[in-house]
Each structure stands twice: as C-alpha cells, then as structure tokens.
Amino acid sequence: MDKKCIPILWMLVLTLTIGLQKLEASNSNRNDVQLFVDNLFFLTDVMVSDVANPPLAARFYSYGLMAAWLADVDNMDKKMPKFNFEFPFNSLPPDKHEIDRVFAAIYAMLEVGRELMPSGYLLEEKQNDLIYYFKKERKLRRKSLQASLEYAYEIARLVIQTASTDGYARLSTHRRYQPSRDEGRWYPTPPEYMAAIEPHWNTIRPFFLDSAHQFSPPEPACFDLDSTSNFYQQLTEVYQVTRQLSEDQNLIANFWDCNPFHVEYSGHMAIGIKKISPGGHWIGITGIACLDAGLPLHESIYIHTLVAFTLHDAFISCWTEKYISDRIRPETVINKYIDQKWRPLLQTPPFPEYTSGHSVISAASAEILTWYFGDNFAFIDTSEEYFGLPARPFSSFRQAAEEAAISRLYGGIHFRDAIEAGVVQGKAVSDFILRKSAQQPYR
C-alpha cells in the first residue's frame, strides 16, 4: 500500500469512529428522553384513573417534575436559567459518584407521584419495571443502583415535605361553597349536577406569582338579557355557533375537550369517560417538542418542570377569578331563557365560567414553549391518540393555544369574553414567570 494513503485511511477511520460515537450518544440521549416521557405519562394515566381535576393535576405534575429536576440538577448546563424562587429546604442530599442521574430523576418523579396521588400505589409496578430495566438493559451495578435509589428517595422526601406546606392539606377546612340563586351566578349543570370543584384554590401557594390576585382580568360582561346588551350578544353567539358547527370545528372542540369529569349514560347507568386534563395535554405537547428537537435529558426535564410550574400558577390565577366573578355557564342561561332542549357539544365542567381555564393555561404554556423552542416550531400533537382522537398538526405553539381557546366557544361551554380575557391572563402569568426566572431566550 502506498504510504501516502495510510494517513488518509486513518483519518477516514477516525472520522467514522467519531461519527458512530456521536450517533450512539444521540441514540442514547433520545432513549433517555423517551424513557422519561414514557414514565411521566404513567403519572398522567393515574391522574386520569383518579379523575384528578385540572388544578390538582397541575399540582401533581409540578411536584413530580420538581423531584426529577432536583435529582438531575447537577447535570444541568450551568448556562441554563434557574428557577427564581426559594425552596423550603437548605440543601440537597450529599452527592455520590455512584448515582445514575437518569435513574434517580425518573424514580424520584415516580416516588412523589406514588406518595401524593390517591391511586399512586399503581406506580409501584412502574418503579419495579424501571429497576429491572436499568439492571438488565443498562447494566447498572448493584452499588450504583442502591446509591441511586437512596438518592431518589431523599429527593422525593424533600419534595413531599415541600408539598405538605402549600395549603392543599387545609382545603377541606374552609367553609363549604354554596351556589347562589342570584341571576347570572354559577349553578351546577347537567348531566351530573356536580358540586363546584376547588372553590378555595386561591389559598394554594404559587411557585412564582406574588399573589393569587396578581393578574386579575377585567370584570366579565354583566348578566343582562336585554337584546342589545353585551352579555346577550355573547349568549346568542354561543347558541348560534354551536347549532351550525363545521366538521373541523366539531373536531377542534373534541380534540381540546380535556374534561376529566365527562359522563355518559346508558339507561340509568352513568359511565365515566376517561380524558386527559388540560394541563396533561400541554405536558404531552412538551414531551413531543423535546423529542422532535432532540433535546438532552437535562433540558427536557427543565422545560417540563417550567411548564408544570407555569400550569400550576396559571390555574391559581384562573381559579381565583372563577370564584370571584362566579359567573353562570351558557348552558344554564340558554336552557332557562332560549331553548330548554339545547345541549352544548361538550359537557359543561363543574365550576364557574369566567375566565376560561383552557384559554389561560394554553396561552401561558404556549408562551413558555415559544420562549424555549422558538416561534414557528411545527409539531404534530399526538397527545389525544391514547384517548381515541386523531393527531393534529400545528405550525407553532401559539397556533395550538389559539385553537384550544376558541374550542371552548365551539364546545358551547364558554362566552367569548371569558376566552379572550383568559388568553390575556395566561400571557400575563407566563410573561411574569419568564421575567422572574430568565431574562433572555434560552435557545
């Protein structure tokens, strides 16, 4: 062989070796993120089984993901923005070189879910599966596994302590909410006529907001059945729009329904239909974006946690207004004054109307994701496929949020001002969080 060819061959071999190593690292990273996203969905599945209401689901996501973030925090890029709020503990457990951060982050997340959720015991099987996977597939040594388990349990303990002081345990001590009989006030709706959900959620401690009242929207249109009033015009809009929905509008409404309280009847038997919560839908979108963008695990955990904290605070802001304005739902007014037989396409959820929760949290989530991934980040939303709905393509997170917001009008469960004010409220919450946690776009 010509001696001149030898260096060239070595360069080719070296380039090929480096390329294979990068491909292997990329595949390993994607596997880590997929494993994280899959195990996070196990928390979602338990929430669906428990019929966790929207604000409560956001709380579960927040503390579960806080545990994953804390367990992986030493792996975080030093240039990444950090959460600018005080944790109620002074330090993390001592670090050990034997810890497998991927295992510890996912296991700690599952452990917090197991402890906090009513049916959290269902996650024990998933924890055992995770241990088996890391022993058999990742060849995790016994000493490293033991150290990782101990670290995950310590992190979970700190997070559960934090959750125990956020006001949730005191919710049952507050005075019971009683629906008002006054005109224009919320009243339970068919078919279940359920009691109002979480009327005292304003007492829950936020992560970023200075107070639950910080981003109060303008007052809703006053209840007024005069045909020239703002309220009556919005009322007739709901009635007319829902009577002539296009096929696509029908699909949009159902795609963004996200009503964990949905009930169908067969004779006298009520059947609960399992559906993801609004926050669960946006957590699903976050996972899709992380995989599409090829993010490393530490970034994926970070942005999931930031979205969860944003959902949590956005629900506090929204629920505070709901029980201040205590506004009637379209179904109640239309049935009483316009058409007794009219029913909305979507079942009316059991809490006051103003502002629209999905509008608030969708706008807030979309702004966080746009800050992180950039505008015009196209993706295919497969979040609802598990629940029997086809995937939908979106050109950006903001487009998805706009569709989620208007879906409430198509579904017949919100007036237009609740949707529009909800969008503004959600953006105000996310803008405040971004100003507080980071000054510049990360990516």
Query: How would the global form be characterised?
Result: globular
Whole-number tally of structural domains? 2
Count every beta strand, where a strand is a DSSP E run of 2 or more residues: 4
Mean pLDDT across the residues is 90
Which stretches of 5+ consecutive residues score pLDDT under 50?
Answer: 13-25
Helix content: 55-70%
CATH architecture type of the largest domain: Orthogonal Bundle
Helical/strand content category: mainly alpha
- How big a fraction of the residues is strand? under 5%
Order of adjacent strands in the largest pleated sheet: 1-2
CA-to-CA gap between the ends? 49 Å
Q: Whole-number radius of gyration?
A: 24 Å
Helix/strand order: HHHHHHHEEHHHHEEHH
Give an overview of the whole structure:
- The structure is a single chain.
- This protein is mainly alpha-helical and 443 residues long.
- It has 2 domains: 27-163, no CATH class; 196-437, Vanadium-containing Chloroperoxidase, domain 2, CATH 1.10.606.
- Helix content is 56%, strand content 3%.
- The strands form 2 sheets. A two-stranded antiparallel sheet has the order 1-2.
- The chain is globular.
- The model is unreliable at 13-25 (pLDDT under 50).
